[in-house]
Amino acid sequence: MFGSIHYQTGQYIAAQQDYEEALAVARTIGWRLAEAFLLGNLGNNYFDMGDYLQSEHYHLQALAICRETGNRLREAMSLDTLGLVYYAFGQGEEAQAHYQQALAIQRDMGARRDEAYTLHHLGLALENIKDYEQAHQIFTAARRIRQELDQTALTMDDLAGSMRVAAAMGKGEVARAYVEEILTWLADHSPDGIEFPVLVYLSCYQVLAATSAGPEDIQRARAVLEAGHALLQQRAGQIQDEVIRRQFLEQVPFNRALLEAWEAQGCLQGQMAVEK
Asked: What would the DSSP string read from start to end of 59-103?
């Protein structure tokens, strides 16, 4: 229980310790279902920290136990996260194969919430290989499920995906419309509940910067980047271990990309100040 609370609040080291202690107990008493659950949680924890090798290590163990015990929903969860791991490794075909296996189980079990997560992750993989039309369809399918389930915060991930795809296809006005929808929602809500909030802020910044029509747009793009940077630093600040904090900032692709954008913006502002 405490591990889940620590994980949800970004306290990854505390969550890891809680999960490891509980895992030792589960193994001592031979509670295989709990063992698989805790292995999966450890895998998720390492994934969020950017340690993808460790995430794979734990989820492969969880997957084997889930298949042994017939825990199909947890099996699908591990397949989904392993897909994300292989996506991070640049193994697109392997990632998609794992997503498709997860989706088959989730649809068979009627697990709509889990299906939406996996669909979104599949959309990321399709976006990465520039299959933009299919990626848009998948992001839209995920968003429709989440709308049905009243999971509005999670639809921001899907809107951001469709926004990036529209921008990549040269549909600037469509992409800007997605930006407006996301930022309007964020103006009245915290980013809590969004799966990849840093990526959402980064995506909005990139589209605003690429389609800016004047100083007001540029200033607005900077404000979005500042909000994303503040959120990232807040999350990183909860990681006391310096090595793991650096890993979180530098190994998670969109965290690294946002920092690079932030540093580039700082250099640009410095150059403009010198020119004045």
From this structure: HHHHHHHHHHHT-HHHHHHHHHHHHHHHHHTT-HHHHHHHHHHHH
Give the residue carrying structure tokens 């994980």. 7
At residue 276, does pLDDT exceed 60?
no
Q: Concatenated DSSP letters for 252-265?
A: SHHHHHHHHHHHHH
The confidence band for 3, taking pLDDT boundaries of 50, 70 and 90, is low
Q: Is 26 helix (H, G, I), strand (E, B) or coil?
A: helix
pLDDT over threshold 50, residue 16: yes
Q: Is the pTM of this model over 0.70?
A: yes
Integer Cα distance of 120 and 155 in angstroms? 10
Token couple for 28: 């001592």
pLDDT digits (tens, 9 = 90+) for 152-176: 999 999 999 999 999 999 999 999 9
Q: Token pair for residue 114?
A: 């889990």
Model confidence over 91-146: pLDDT tens digits? 999 999 999 999 999 999 999 999 999 999 999 999 999 999 999 999 999 999 99
CATH topology of domain 1-110: 1.25.40
Q: Which of 209, 210, 197, 214 is nearest to 160 (CA)?
A: 197
Distances (CA, A) of 213 to 30, 177, 228, 251: 63, 15, 22, 33
The CA–CA distances, whole Å, from 106 to 1, 40, 109, 196 equal 25, 17, 5, 21
CB of 258 within 8 A of CB of 227? no
Which residue ranges make up each domain of the chain?
Answer: 1-110, 145-256
**Mean pLDDT along residues 46-68:** 98
